[in-house]
Amino acid sequence: MSTSMMSPVPIEDQAKLLDEVLNVVKVQAHLMKKCLENNKLMDGLKHCSNMLAELRTSALTPKNYYELYMSIFDAMRHLTAFLTEAHTAGRHHLADLYELVQYAGNIVPRLYLMITVGAAYMSMPDAPVREIMRDMMEMTRGVQHPIRGLFLRYYLSSMTRDHLPVGEGSGPEGNVFESINFILTNFTEMNKLWVRLQHQGHSRDREKREAERKELRILVGTNLVRLSQLDGVDLKIYQKDILPGILDQVVSCRDVIAQEYLMEVITQVFPDDFHLRTLQPFLSATAQLHPKVNVKQIIISLIDRLAAFAAREAEGEEPNDAKKQREENIRRIAQERKRKLQGLQPEEEEEEEEEQVEEQEPEQNTEESAGDTAAAEEEQQVPSQDEEAIDNTPLGGEQEATDNVEAEDAKADETETKEEKAVETGDLVQAEEEDAIKKVRGIPEDVELFVVFWGQIVELVKARPDLSIQDLTALLVSLINLSLSCYPEKIDYVDQILAYAKDKVLEFSDSPDLHSKATEANLLGLLLAPIQHYSSALYLLALANYQPLLALQPYPTRQQAAYAVVNSILKNATTIDIPEDVHGVLELCDVLLRDQKDAPVTAAPQPTYGGGRQKHAELSLEQEEYIEKQGLLARMVHLFQSESEDTQFLLLSAARKQFGDGGDRIRYTFPPLIVSAVKLARRYKFQEEQDEIWEKKTSALFRFIHQVISALYHKCEVADNCLHLFLLAGQSADECGFEEIAYEFFVEAFTIYEESISESRAQFQAITCIIGALQQTRVFSVDNYDTLITKAALHSSKLLKKPDQCRGVYLSSHLWWATERGITESDLPEGEKATLFRDGKRALECLQKALKIADSCMDPVTNVELFVEILNRYIYYFEKGNEAVTVKYLNGLIDLINTNLSNMDNPDQHPPTSNSSSLVEHEGLVSDYVRRHFRATLLHLQTRKEQSARTDFQGPKYDELDLGDI
Fold this sequence. Notes:
Elements lengths: L10 H27 L3 H12 L9 H28 L4 H7 L6 H16 L6 H11 L6 H15 L15 H21 L9 H24 L5 H19 L2 H14 L2 H6 L1 H9 L7 H23 L2 H22 L5 H17 L3 H26 L8 H25 L2 H8 L3 E2 L2 E2 L4 H15 L5 H18 L4 H17 L9 H17 L12 H6 L3 H17 L7 H10 L1 H4 L27 H17 L7 H15 L6 H21 L7 H22 L3 H18 L2 H18 L3 H16 L6 H16 L4 H11 L17 H6 L4 H16 L4 H21 L6 H17 L7 H4 L11 H25 L16
């Protein structure tokens, strides 16, 4: 054919040329089928040879050549089926045809026909498979053109894949080892042709040829897939016969594209069990690859696959009890390391000391009891010896990374030597022992997966000084995931990786690659991996190198890591019960607690954030994110919990010390501290009978609360919050019986009211809260209480708006009429009932003053609304037995309201102005609400009057009430 020696034609002519050759194939295939249907084999072979001759072309691109090949491949299936049927029927013997087709004129059609007949012959019983395989392999060497040779060998692989021998016999039918050799030889030759393809054509077309080579890579990789699917291949055969041959070819080809692709294929197609036992040769081969090969990605692929394998195995093999035991082991190991880093005594030693103290008394008894005690002590020594042995292992102590590597490499070399001896000797007993080796999370105990990978990565870094920090950190991310998946209890492994990463970050501190997005993402993944795998973020405190590595990261990375720590603690409800842990966790969250030098301008807190009056819609995205993160920190405070009251105080003090440097952030973090401290004060109160010095401790706690609220008040514009917190603290001090402290807290609340609350609505709400808090107090002497409530009443009467004044004054009346707390008044002891501060006349004076203020309001609707509210207060005192409040006041006020109702205009033009400080917003017209309220009040009085008339009622007399027509 004229196109056989041509180079690829221009792109614009490729479609036309492809159509031409496909038409030829279509015609010749049709003629071949007709001849075969008429049992004219020789004519059919002639047409088939004409069709196959189109594969001699060099004018097509690899992509178009592949389309031509597939068209011919589909047509050849008819010939294969005919040959098989003819041989079975006895019309044509395949051995004769195998010799016949070799007389074809051109080598490409000749070899395709030979492979077709040979593959069909291999499928027959008693066929000389070994000889056919050797002959076809030898003959295919005749085509050395890269593209034609690749597709020819791909055809050879495709046609023979179902007929390769898998037995172990030595007869002409062949065996599995010859099949392996056949596939490996084909793979080697195809790889050579694939590599040679890069040298075809002009150097200016190199990028184009590389793209074409990548399109053809699946042809070469198919051989490795065939090997992985071959029956009869076990670990021993893979170790001895398959992997060495593959790796030898991969390393020797010295081609970047081929090496990267083939190493990836090896990783993906062979079983995980095989990889676990052949890590050393595989990783050693990676170190011998071309310097431009992306070794990082090869190792990462293998690590990730094995980590995923371990995770799947763990899900399938671990019962719930085993998971709980593993989690307990992790907790215990992390606790030991953490306490050691914090300079604390190990928990085991503390428990042993307590046991020894408890055992001293039995030791002083009789000889018999002494003997029993000695036996018990001897039993207790067994676990302590185990713990001592654990502490002496590399897991129990901190060693330098290099020391670990040397020891682990020596052990790995010893293991490898033993495995090689077992393979060489072929010892059946050894093989059985290997089968019986216990597996943990799918990993055999004698395969130190992390040790091998760690050693290889360290050696790789030494051998490849050009390895970028980006690639190195990517490797470490995969390695830490492997460690956490396969060896979750080996906390030392994780710390070892973090230490190495920290050293490399310092080493590359001046490199631009360190600040690339990929490197930062890798380092963030390195920091997030332990948080995502461990059930408690406190385990991070057992990693000596976590905080130092975190501190070296840029602001966004530190922020995301801190955010993940807080989320983990909240999600798992992790209780933090010692001050050292509070300090450690908040150090990890430092970027959320304090201003950072490298923080962007938008990340700095602004005084308006959360100021209480700024509408949510006015907040920027950065402000909302900032407030959200501070809110999470505030929630975390409530997880600082200890069963010991004294330790709880230390927890809060440690948190206050960390939060205190946060500037405006304390508006979010101090309030939960104060609430937790108030809860602690109640706990101290409950311990007054068990703890002789509880008063001193509680006084110190209240001083702490006072300092925290004062700091919040002076540093942030949150006067409203601080006033409420002082009131809360004052009520808590009242419950605990500390009069002077409670008085001081209320004085501070009044001070904030006078100094910082100026907006009228805020003043009304604040004075309402002050009145409510004071009314519930019981600890004050008469003088102190009178001073405070007089001040509250005075402030109420000086509010800006008349409705506010009126409501404030009638609410103040309750300050002169103390009520019981939580139980009915009839259940109170006589002594306690007598201590309730009540002055009915002063309460009445407040109501009368409120009535005068209400009468002075210009708006008729507001006027009547306030009258109705005051009437309800009169009724309250009347029913509570305030002798100063008599029926005449109720009758007079009812008449006054009726008079004003008749004169009240229906529409209220300006309800927001006249009624702006009402604590309850009303639906619809205010005038309608006032009428309904008044009518409900009269109905209540009518019901009371009827009940009083029907029964011998001992309470207030209702018969003199004049309710008129309701």
